[in-house]
Amino acid sequence: MHRSASGWRLTLVLFFVTSVIESYGYSHVLAFLPVYLQGMRVQHASTWVGVLSALTFIVGLPLVPMWGVWANRHGGKAVIIRSAFVEAVVFALLGFSHRLAGVVVAMSLVGFQLGNTGIMLSSLRRLVPDNRVGSAISMFSVASPIGMALGPLVGGWLVHGGSFTLHDLYYVDAVLSVMTGSMLLLFYREADRRQDTSSEPAWRTAWTSVRFTFNLPVTWLLFGIYGLLMVTRQMVNPYVPVAIEKFYHHSGSITLAIGAMVGLAALVGALITIIAGRLGDRVGFTKVLTWAFAVLVPAAALLGFSRQLSSFGLILTAFSAAVSIGGAMIFALFSTRIPESHRNTALNLVYLPMYLGGIVGPLMASGLIRFGVAGPFGGAALASLVGWWVIVRKLRETVPDAELHITTG
User: Fold this and answer.
1) CA-CA to 110 of 20 to 30 Å: which in 89, 130, 131, 260?
2) Is residue 200 part of a domain?
3) Helices 8-39, 166-187: inter-axial angle, 10-degree rounding
4) Are 119 and 201 contacting, i.e. CB atoms less than 8 angstroms apart?
């Protein structure tokens, strides 16, 4: 009997909630990891922040092309739900950890949690009408920034209130992840479609898909730009809490201060991204992408020279908005410019640059921190400057804005 798929609007809502919860929990790791390690009396905690951030992507990188193959063979629903339940295990382990070794094990398992967003993006693209792609992809892409905003805000407030410790916060994140997986299990219906029944080893199919996708010049450009965007983000994000600690001279809770500043910056950035998505439909995605990188370069640099908490917060908001908009525009470009024959493979691999950026960015930043917090932020500014040059000199010549205009219905 044929089983109808969930409608694209319901699917968008389910995936939106899934991404928000995932980012909400992971933002607690990013925002409070320095404080968490210091509470365990870990030596060289600032260096370990960068190493642990890179570790998750080192473990996850070899699995990037495999999730797409397994989704084709066993269904995307199974791969997406797998992520939610592995995520629950990660947060539970973090909650139980009172030594560095436990944190290392938990952060290593994050590599097995990754790989769901590309599958969700591919599944959503199959359902969304052509005249709604830009708006739908932009809405989905802001789910992660919203989760990244709410996590530090709510988490910082709960810990500041005294009724929650950071350990308790991770326990709650584990419960929310289980609820997310259960929600998808009950309400998400994947369309019945022919599965890949090839007897070829999964790794060989994955390698063929990777080569096939990278035969397209536009793929190289988009992956390169997204990789530079992720390097920029991953050089800055782990050390924003470190910078806030240096600026914060009040008697109040440092977790509340970090949560409020990081959360508000991400939330405002997400709201601006929704507007930018509609603007991209009208003027072209590459033009908006160019503007985002033009803001990203000075914002990253100025973060390292700010000497007041208020000015640091304003610059961080501009940085968060530029990163969020850049990601949304790249997702839209992938969804509209990759030919149908290549689209599923490309969207399944869309987070490969994120993993590479997640390795390179924190490792470079952990080396540059010896020059103070201005070191990682200055390196991020340089990476984003290279990205801006690639957009202006390469992408806009290869795919003109005139060809990227989408009329929304």
Assistant:
1) 260
2) no
3) 160
4) no
For the record, the structure tokens of 166 come out as 């950071």
Angle at which helices 143-161 and 254-283 cross, to 10°:
170
pLDDT at 407 over 50: no
Show the tokens assigned to 382: 């340089």
Question: Does the residue 50 lie in any domain?
Answer: yes
We report the CATH number of the domain holding residue 129 as 1.20.1250.20
CB 328 within 8 A of CB 277: yes
Instruction: Evaluate whether residue 199 is within a structural domain.
Output: no
**Side chain identity at residue 318, one-letter code:** A
Burial class, 212, CB count within 10 angstroms (exposed 0-12 / middle 13-18 / buried 19+): middle
Amino acid at position 257, single letter: A
Dump the DSSP string for 274-337: HHHHHHHHHH-HHHHHHHHHHHHHHHHHHHTT--SHHHHHHHHHHHHHHHHHHHHHHHHHHHHH
Distance, in Å, from the CA atom of 199 to the CA atom of 180, rounded to the nearest integer, reads: 33
What is the residue range of 323's domain? 8-186+205-403
Q: Is the pTM of this model over 0.90?
A: no
* CA torsion angle 48 49 54 55 (round to 10): 60
The answer to whether residue 197 sits within a structural domain is no
Helix, strand, coil distribution of the chain in percent, nearest 5: 85, 0, 15
Burial grade of 70 (CB within 10 A; 0-12, 13-18, 19 or more):
buried
pLDDT, tens digit (0-9, with 9 covering 90-100), for 166-192: 999 999 999 999 999 999 999 998 865
Q: What is the total count of domains within the chain?
A: 1
* Residues in CB range of 101: below 8 A, 6 or more apart: none
What would the pLDDT profile of 270-326 be if each residue is shown by its tens digit?
Answer: 888 888 877 887 788 888 999 999 999 999 999 888 878 888 889 999 999 999 899
Tokens of 242: 């470190």
* DSSP helix/strand/coil, 46: helix
Q: How confident is the model at residue 344 (pLDDT cuts 50, 70, 90)?
A: low
